[in-house]
Amino acid sequence: MAWKWQVFCKETTTGETVTGCFGRGGDETYLNWIVSAWGWTLTVSLLALVVALVAGLAIGTIRTLPDRPWVVRFGNAWVELFRNIPLLVQIFLWYFVIPGIFPVMRDVPSIVLVVMALGMFTSARIAEQVRAGIQALPRGQRYAGLALGLSTWQTYRYVLLPMALRIIIPPMTSESMNIMKNSSVAFAVSITELTFFAMQSGEETAAPVEMYLAVTVLYALSAFVINRIMAFIESRTRVPGFVAAGGMAGGH
Amino acid sequence: MKKVLLLAALAAGATGTAFAQASDTIAKAKATGSVTMGVRESSGALSYTLGDGKYAGFHVEICQRILAELEKQVGRKLDVKYQAVTSQNRIPLVQNGTVDIECGSTTNNAARAKDVGFLNTTYVEEVRIAVKANSGINSIAQLNGKTVATTTGTTSVQHLRKHERANGVDFKEVFGKDHADSFLMLESGRADAFVMDGSILAGNIANAKNPADFKIVGEVINVEPIAIMIRKDDAGLKKLGNDVIAGLIKSGEMNKLWDKWFLQPIPPKNIKIGLALSESTKAAWANPNDKPMEDYAKK
Question: Structure pTM?
Answer without folding.
Answer: 0.81
